[in-house]
Amino acid sequence: MDFLPPRLARDLPSVGPNTRFLLAQPFLADTATALERRSAQWLSAPFPLGVEGTTLWLQAAAREWNVPDERFRAVTAPGIERARQAVSRHRFQLAGKRIFLFPDSQLEVPLARFLARELGMVPVEVGTPYLHRKHLAAELALLPAGTQLSEGQDVERQLDRCREAKPDLVVCGLGLANPLEAEGMTTKWSIELVFTPIQGYEQVGDLAELFARPLVRRTRLAV
Hints:
alpha/beta, two-stranded parallel ribbon, 9 helices
């Protein structure tokens, strides 16, 4: 098993017809295209965000290499249990809260799936700068029925919809965060989600906390 990018440029793996690959991020469409031009085959799976996403991502690889389901469950069970316990510590703060995601990083769809299915949040609108329907097919199938999606940047209209919806939490870029905070909204900087390790079982608790923290801060600042 190899990972891209490697620690050293000279350690690039060989890629050919017998190569199978999974995407760890939804903004790797160009990487996927380059690998497929070398006859590598992409394995469809949700992205490894949250307990569910990580399990299904690993399962896609396990099934490709004919790992027995019983063996897979035994190996992943400890990680799943730790991750579920980590998520449970934040669910009471987030369950039922309405969230609006502005388009920024292409992480929005898998994040919305994680927040809705594992933390009980309600996605009001899930914006993404680009919706790669092939790579996100497994994610889209897991979103709550009726989830409103928007693709591309139409900031003024998105702001109008956000203000009308009055969500409990808004995920957006730095340019929108301060003005929305001044209007009384609670925001989460999307840039943190790009530079913070959030994939895999061991990061699930940290990922959930990133969304709980702004709401806790707002509660502590309330007069």
